[in-house]
């Protein structure tokens, strides 16, 4: 993500925060989940300002997930270490498991097909167009069982301004750590690969 894009997102988040004043006059406080509590008399407009994550493709129930909805799911915390262009990075991420998010959309797996989840993938796309793929089998405890997250906080700081981040523990390089996820596409590789 370019420096200009990050600055623009921070500016938008700051403007939204400035225009979201609690009717009761209470100050904003950080909650234990890293979100912003603007008082009981106001809505969480800051949380809703980031684009919702759309889940589409081979799912029975396509839907969108706001940051508030992602925070309402069971939260998991992972500590990761990976290589990036800046060298070795170590971070702590918190958010729902990607598998839990996808379970709410019901990927179209065929119970009659042996190990059907091996044929499916999830393509995560960031707001800047960056994209990476995770296999459904990586999320399945019967196979890899990775605790892949759609993180809503990093190192204790919320990701409200940039949106959720795909986190793939165990990867040596951080290439699949997609920032600002706006779209998840569940796909079946059989639709793409020639069987002949």
From TrEMBL:
Lineage top rank: taxon: Bacteria
Pfam families in the record: Oxidored_molyb
Keywords (A to Z) from UniProt: Signal
Coiled coil: none
Signal peptide from the UniProt entry: 1-27
InterPro entries registered for this protein in UniProt: OxRdtase_Mopterin-bd_dom, OxRdtase_Mopterin-bd_sf
Oxidoreductase molybdopterin-binding domain: residues covered: 53-172
Annotated protein name in UniProt: Molybdopterin-binding oxidoreductase
């Amino acid at each position: 993500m370019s420096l200009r894009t990050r600055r623009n997102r921070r500016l938008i988040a700051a403007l939204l925060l400035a225009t979201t004043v609690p009717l009761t006059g209470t100050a904003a406080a950080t909650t234990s989940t890293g979100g912003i509590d603007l008082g009981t008399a106001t809505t969480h407009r800051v949380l809703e300002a980031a684009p919702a994550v759309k889940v589409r493709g081979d799912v029975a129930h396509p839907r969108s997930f706001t940051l508030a909805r992602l925070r309402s799911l069971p939260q998991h915390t992972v500590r990761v270490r990976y290589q990036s262009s800046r060298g070795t990075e170590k971070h702590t991420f918190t958010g729902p498991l990607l598998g839990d998010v996808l379970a709410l959309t019901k990927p179209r797996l065929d119970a009659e097909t042996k190990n059907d989840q091996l044929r499916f993938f999830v393509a995560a796309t960031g707001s800047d167009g960056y994209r990476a793929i995770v296999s459904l089998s990586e999320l399945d405890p019967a196979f890899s069982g990775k605790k892949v997250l759609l993180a809503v906080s990093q190192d204790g700081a919320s990701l409200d301004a940039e949106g959720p981040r795909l986190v793939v523990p165990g990867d040596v390089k951080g290439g699949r750590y997609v920032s600002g996820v706006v779209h998840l596409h569940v796909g079946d590789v059989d639709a793409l690969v020639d069987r002949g």
